[in-house]
Amino acid sequence: MTGFTVIVEVPVTASAEVLVSAAVKEHNRQNQHFQRDQSYVLLKQDYSIVRERFCLQEYKEQMKKPYSKLMMYLCRKDTYEECRKIDNDEVNKDNQSPKKKIKRKGKKSNECITDDEEIQFGPAEGANNNFDDTLPVELFSIDDMKEDDSDLPDIPFESTPGPSSVDDPRPSTSNADVCTDHGNIGIYRSYVELIADDTGSDYDEDADLQAAISNSLQQCSSTKNESNTQDVQDVLKQLASKIQTSEEAGYSKFNISRSNVWDGAKRGFKRKSFSPFKRLNVRFTDDSGRDEGAVDTGGPSREFFRLLLNYMRNSSLFDGDNTMKVLSLNCTAMDEDLYYLAGQMMAVSIVHGGPGPRFLAPTLYECLAFGIQGVIPSLADVGDYDTRQKLLAILEAKSDVALLGAVNAAGDLISLSGTGHIIPTMETKKKLFDGLLRFVSINRTMCAFERFKAGLRTLGVLDALKDHPHGFRRIFTYEKRIINATIVESMFDVKNSLSLEGSNKRKEESLVLSFWRDYLIDAEEHETDASLTDIVVFATGLEDDPPLGFIPPPSLDFIRGDDESRILPVANTCANILRIPVAKSYAVFKSLMDFGVMNSAGFGQV
User: Fold this and answer.
1) Of 35, 438, 485, 515, most Cβ neighbours within 10 A?
2) Is the pLDDT of residue 170 over 80?
3) Cβ neighbours of residue 578 closer than 8 Å, sequence gap 6 or more
């Protein structure tokens, strides 16, 4: 039978352990015939084994092709070792006697060999020790002869899935066994196929079969990319369905001053009556301490979480650039368990309709999604400037003398990181640098990381993130977003707000709509006081679509008055309605919109 194919997503820095773990988990989830209690090894496209020191990024660079996908194979360890032993025996036997050229009997590549067939297991002429021409299932044949094993151990890297593997009761009609019968020896070549972050093969295979596989993978990848956002929204809607909406359940209450959002947020989240499963009731006060007068049916909550995440981005809980934040190590924050609180706040924001953080460094996100073992950090993940310079000096040392000076300057880091046993030479420089970098960027902050991760488990967000790492990436990490007049205009539905066609009001509204579209174009070209982001924040409380989407979708309405020079725009952020003034000239409309948007201090102010 043919192999069972799955698609998994892994970081480009993934190690062999991460690849095997991801493949095993996904097969166990999708294939009910998968034998999760077995040990597995990973094979490359040329069917050579993936060793422990393997790195996906380096492998892609060695291939020298701009792949976006990569095909690999997962094979049971016992099958691999048995097949390798038999193949080696056949090669040795063949070297002692003349080879016989035996033609295959027209069998297709996915058929099993029967007892009446003779197959030459020795290398064919010009085949460079490749067994693809003799094994019955060429795509999944095992060939480790290409790889020079002179300096490598004989035991391959393996992974033994434990009881923590996730079960999925969904039925499957495929399994992973291919039978090869040679004489009286029965070999079950059990395999499963791993699609990592690349695709392509240069081997001569059945053209129709390969074209079908390629088309299937392309369609699957295209569909997956197009539906990522929708898939994540569906997941979040499922998580949000656990929120209790009855009046009897009550609310989690927050009293927030814009001058100190963090303090009010901490009080609200630590309150005994707080529960992430309750609806939120956020009440803002202005600088004078007066209630802003907004009843929270969504708008104040979104505004609150936007301000809160902006505060956290620049707080002492995180280090690094604004778009690549890593966790710091703050002893006061650890004592007050603020890392847990930060993770919990992010989780509650995402599920309750607020924004995602969108500022975590990719390395921190990959640690959350895939675990820390296979993640390879970079210098960009070192938030402290002085520490980064010390590591850079070690990396760029050109001589033993320069390296020794850099090591002496970083003596405090070396003593704390446990790399003091490494004698600093040009040969060991990379090992020393990697050890220090991993300590500074990952190991040093493990206590904070574990508490942060525990907070993200609130409402099931962390588990959902692990199940959908690609879709959640844009929620947690920075991604440059294009905002222009067309995008902002498309956000607001105006159909239900227009008066009857042919009426005088409809003529006025049509004119104002042209003003509105011109105003957005002017804002994009920086010809207005308000930016496009200011307009979206004024209307919705957020700078962009939240992960859960706007509920209800934003709409545009019209506001009239006797004195058009005093009609200011009004935003109902709970219902996501923006009411624009009906003016007779564009100059007046532009002036009113600029004044209203830029002088809106908060809810109830305009």
Assistant:
1) 515
2) no
3) 492, 538, 539, 554, 555, 556, 557, 569, 570, 571, 572
